[in-house]
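tokens incoming
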């Protein structure tokens, strides 16, 4: 498990007064502004966040130390991180995506299927992108209780019962 988690990203500037278009990856999108200063991936910069208003696919926000459109434009694509201890603990049967990435995936018979490369969501449910040496292409496994009955973070593994024909 990582000490810091990505909670959002800057999609570019918004307007001409230094506001940014902020995408939130939080379960409650507005909560991104409550976790304290957000840092860049390398930790070199930290920003206080104040949400100004909702905009399409995110928020218009003011970041501490960003006062001009040019400064906001320069941050486009920057991912924002927060220390794990400032985030709420996930409920039972809920996981931070960062905790699932890299876990080995086994079927119910103990055969290794691959490793979680990423967690995707296209609206209906989360999908685990699984890759491995025996796979010609990555497999998208629905992250549902039926398809993934066991997640064992301490052992670093997932037990999957994939739909017939998926693997």
């Amino acid at each position: 498990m990582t000490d810091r988690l990505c909670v959002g990203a800057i999609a570019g500037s918004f307007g001409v007064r230094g506001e940014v278009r902020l995408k939130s990856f939080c379960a409650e999108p507005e909560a991104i502004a409550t976790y304290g200063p957000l840092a860049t991936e390398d930790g070199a910069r930290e920003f206080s966040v104040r949400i100004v208003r909702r905009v399409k696919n995110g928020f218009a926000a003011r970041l501490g130390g960003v006062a001009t459109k040019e400064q906001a434009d320069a941050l486009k694509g920057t991912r924002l991180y927060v220390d794990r201890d400032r985030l709420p603990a996930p409920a039972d049967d809920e996981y931070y995506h960062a905790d699932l990435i890299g876990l080995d995936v086994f079927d119910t018979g103990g055969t290794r299927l691959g490793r979680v490369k990423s967690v995707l969501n296209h609206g209906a449910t989360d999908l685990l992108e699984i890759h491995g040496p025996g796979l010609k292409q990555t497999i998208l496994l629905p992250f549902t209780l039926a398809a993934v009955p066991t997640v064992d973070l301490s052992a670093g593994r997932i037990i999957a019962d994939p739909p017939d024909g998926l693997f």
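note: The chain has two domains: 4-86, 97-160.
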